[in-house]
Amino acid sequence: MIEFIVGGLIFGACLAFAFWGLPRFGVYRKRLAGVAALAEAQAEAEVTVREARADRDAAVLLAEAEVERAKGVAKATEIVGKALHENEGYLRYLWIERLTNQEAKIIYVPTEGGLPILEAGRRAHGKV
Question: Are the C-beta atoms of residues 109 and 116 closer than 8 Å to each other?
Fold first, then answer.
């Protein structure tokens, strides 16, 4: 009979502990889940911020590279332009060479204002 009473007391204590502890355990478990969700959200936000910073840094570096490339092109254009401006005879030579090496039979000669009269005489003679 003592075993029955002791068993009943143990069962009652376990039941009382379950009624008292299970709600608190549920609250504890939800709090831990909330903390985990918050930590995950913070980590995702940090990753997003770092990716945005990396994109910005890449854009800045690409812009700087483009500026440097443009400076190089401008300097090369200046050098070539100065060299050609000071050597008009070489430009005439290149023009004559190009004319002699072409297979085309039509040559456009600039008139007043530098504009050519395009094929004005060909249509009048029926040579199209």
Answer: yes
Query: Residue 62, exposed/middle/buried by CB under 10 A (0-12, 13-18, 19+)?
Result: exposed
Residues forming a β-bridge with 110: 116
| Residue 121 pLDDT greater than 70, yes or no | no
Q: Please choose, from the candidates 111, 107, 103, the residue with its C-alpha nearest in 3D space to the C-alpha of residue 122.
A: 107
Q: Which tokens in the block code for residue 118? A: 């395009």
- Predicted local confidence at residue 52, as pLDDT: 96
Q: At residue 102, does pLDDT exceed 90? A: no
Question: In which residue are the tokens 């030579």 written?
Answer: 93
C-alpha distance across the termini of the chain, in Å = 129
Prediction pTM value: 0.44
